[in-house]
Amino acid sequence: MATTVVGQETHAAGAAYGEKTGLWSWLTTVDHKRIGILYGTTAFCFFLLGGLEALLIRFQLVKANNTLVSPDFYNQLFTMHGTTMIFLAIMPLSAMFFNFMIPLMIGARDVAFPRLNAFSYWVFLLGGLFLNVSFLFGAAPNQGWFGYANLTSRQYSPGPNVDFWLMGLQILGVASLAAAVNFFVTIMNLRAPGMKLMRMPMFCWMSFITQVLLLLAFPVITVALIMLMFDRFFGTHFFVPSGGGDPILWQHLFWIFGHPEVYILIMPAFGIISEILPVFSRKPLFGYAAMVFSGVFIAFIGFGVWSHHMFSTGMGPIADTFFALATMLIAIPTGVKIFNWIGTIWGGSIQYKTPMYFALAFIAMFIMGGLSGVMHAVAPHDLQQTDTYFVVAHFHYVMFGGSIFALTAGAYYWWPKMFGRMLDERLGKIHFWLMFIGFNVTFFPMHFLGLLGQPRRTYTYQAGLGFDWLNQLETVGAVILFFAFLTFLINVIKTWRRPATAPADPWNGATLEWSLPSPPQEWNFAEVPVVHSRDPLWERKRERGGPLPEPLRVSGQGIHLPAPSFWPAVAAVGVMGLFLGIMLSPKVGPWAIFVGVSVLFFGVFNWIFEPSYTSIPGVGGRPRAGHH
Amino acid sequence: MSDHAHALETSTGLDSRKLAIWTFIGSECMFFASLISTYVVYRNKSLVGPFPHEAWVSPAGQHFEPIIEIPLVTAGTAVLLFSSFFVVLALYGAQRGNRKMMIGWLGATILCGFFFIGMQVYEFTHFVHKGLTLQTNLFGASFFTLTGFHGTHVTIGVIWLITMFILALRGQLPPENSINLEMAALYWHFVDVVWVVIFPVVYLMK
Questions:
Q1: Chain A to chain B, count of Cβ pairs less than 8 Å apart?
Q2: What is the DSSP string of B26-85?
Q3: Residue A131 near residue A165 (C-beta atoms within 8 A)
Q4: Residue A15 pLDDT
């Protein structure tokens, strides 16, 4: 085992280990940073696909009695738009930041289970492809992303559309659960010395809460999907009224998952915003402890409000009252968060860089989404608004105005760290204004359309109802949004042609990831950092006066890194085979299931019994961080 | 399986793999909670018989037979509970380098697992024979789904324990690696504890 070495040998070891390229290295990578990039790239492709589906929906609705797409294809479009954006875009885009940033921010060398991490990604990719390959058969899911019984029963959905949806979600559930266990343990166990829970960066805290939500919410939809699967394939009657089954049970199970899922989508956004605002305001985060506990509180109540999605099912006044009050209660910790963000900006010396633009827009847009959410919590009000475009407006203000704005802010903020290149500021600002204007032009009129009575998921509408011009306006907004993301793509391509010259710490950051070169070496920290405060990097800069940190401890140990492995990908294929088998005919299906399970076990056994670490001799000692 | 994994310090002082198993078990609690709730909601909502604990009218409508055989399931439950005790003894042996003790009790645990699976296979075929299937009614559907998924977990546990048994036979489970067995044992205890909930809810609740 090597001891402290500096300089040339460090470089040589890096060249020997870290700079492998080519397809095989990506297939076998277990480096959390590369897996993060895989997540990001894949999720962004799915995001564009989901955006394209949205654009088609908007073109269909641009005029009354339009027949641009067929009614059935329209059903497929809105179902896949919702499913894609939730499961294949926002969640994995958050996972990109979990993967790339959490180990760096808590001072860890990798996640707790690097190969399980790779497994999660490959399962996610295959699950996403599984869902979308249905388009090629003209049988994409067409029942809505919530899969309400008994629209999803064999009787009303005889084709394979719903099968693709339920198997696809099961596959994605495996990926989410594996990732959640991994990041839960990573955050609990791999924090650098001195990084107590109450010193963790807020992004790590909010991610931690997200993992807990994932762990507790996903098994519930797994069970619901299993029962739906049994109904469709084995003739049970869980959700079939003619056999005594209750369609409302589906809604309960689905929303016990579905409501926490909303917080799974927004919690990482809270975390990203809480990282960006202090850095660009030059002030520590205001009310750190209140931020942490309000997050925990939101997650906790988030499990007790699922039935506010079900006011119109006739649960009765007592249940309605309970869920209405519980829902309104969530506004309190959310308000605490928003006031703390404003408190963070208050009196700060604000730097208006692109990430800050998106972060500030997040606050404003999220407040709007939150307020229309409180309107829904009023049960009588909800009965008027439910299943109208008002609901569509609400959740797009929360999911797009919230999650997507925050994820975009995070992309601009962490891009230099991830790729070693600064994104262009001017194009970034153009991106921002196009997105901000396009977003509001698209989704604000939806409030009015909803109040006028335009139903959601509607294929078309009659002329003369007053819907026309608002729909046209929205379509214009959607086109502006298209150009916004085109600008982002241009920015990425333009930036990609430049050499990787981003400084280690372009924004004067407060957290540990900025103490590393951009992009960081494969082993992250040559020295394990020791943390004394909530803003370790600011503290070090203050103490030492210099722009970049010095190593605080020389460990004198060599570095162990997880060895590349292709078994996680093999195991992921096994998972795919298992669920594909259930969909296939009774003749082939059982064999496919058998092969799938065998491949899964084979992959898992091989990954457990192969040696899991390689040492990099000659790396260790002083970090290279300060020399770039 | 790397020995380096032990050397790494963790923030909580717990081994990461052990924490992962606990985390996974927490998640599994929600899985079984959903299945058990569904069973409780549906057990008496069937439109046609048989109902749990009621006499079952055969298709001819002539004679009555009870469906659930409490003595058999009680035996299976007892064996499963004893197996939790056995796996503790196996782990005790593993941690103290007593290979004979580890292998013996591990073998006993696995046999218990097989007994339980055998009990369930018998019970399932017996029920199907009597005319209760997944498709029969809500009771059948929620019964087979709940106990079937528990049985699947037992099966996975048995496969895991057999893997440990083979490692132990080959001498690849020294005391410093006993955490591997400990993880399997934790999972096994969980599967047992779930049955402790399922047994009264499904077989004893009136």
A1: 114
A2: HHHHHHHHHHHHHHHHHTT--SSSPPTTSEEE-TTS--EEES--HHHHHHHHHHHHHHHH
A3: yes
A4: 37
Whole-number percent of chain A with pLDDT over 90: 80
Tell me the pLDDT tens digit for each residue of A277-292.
Answer: 999 999 999 999 999 9
Distance CA A255, CA A257 (A): 5
Query: Is the CB of A245 less than 8 angstroms away from the CB of B138?
Result: yes
ipTM score? 0.91
A16 pLDDT above the threshold of 70: no
HSE-up (13 A, CA, CB side) for residue B55:
7
Q: Give the SS3 label for residue A23.
A: helix
Dig out the tokens for A628 from the structure.
Answer: 């770039």
Write phi, then psi, for B151 (nearest 5 degrees). Answer: -60, -40
pTM above 0.90, yes or no: yes
Residues of B in contact with A611 (CB under 8 A): 1-2
The pLDDT tens digits of the residues spanning A397-406 come to 999 999 999 9
Return the half-sphere exposure (C-beta side, CA atoms, 13 A cut-off) of residue B109: 33
Query: Could you give the CA distance from residue A567 to residue A114 in angstroms, rounded to a whole number?
Result: 12
pLDDT digits (tens, 9 = 90+) for A280-333: 999 999 999 999 999 999 999 999 999 999 999 989 999 999 999 999 999 999
Q: Does B26 touch chain A (CB under 8 A)?
A: yes
pLDDT band (50, 70, 90) for residue A554 = very low
Residue A145 near residue A79 (C-beta atoms within 8 A): yes
For all residues of chain A together, what is the average pLDDT?
A: 90
Closest-CA distance of chain A to residue B145, Å: 8
Q: E strands, chain B, where?
A: 55-57, 64-66
B136 touches chain A (CB under 8 A): no
**How far from A552 is each of A104, A512, A528, A530, A543, CA to CA, in Å?**
16, 13, 8, 6, 12
> How many Å apart are CA A557 and CA A4, to the nearest integer?
7
Residue A547 has what pLDDT? 54
CB A236 within 8 Å of CB A372: no
Whether the upstream peptide bond of residue B50 has omega within 30° of 0, thus cis, is yes
Counting Cβ atoms within 10 Å, is residue A358 exposed (0-12), middle (13-18) or buried (19+)?
buried
Enter the DSSP assignment of B204.
I
pLDDT at A19: 52
pLDDT at A448 over 90: yes
Question: Could you tell me the two tokens for B172?
Answer: 């690849």
Distances in Å between the alpha carbon of A590 and those of A246, A582, A584, B98? 29, 7, 8, 43
- Asked if A558 contacts A564 with a C-beta cutoff of 8 angstroms, the reply is no
CB contact under 8 A, A244 and B11: no
Measured distance CA(A291)–CA(A272) in Å, rounded: 13
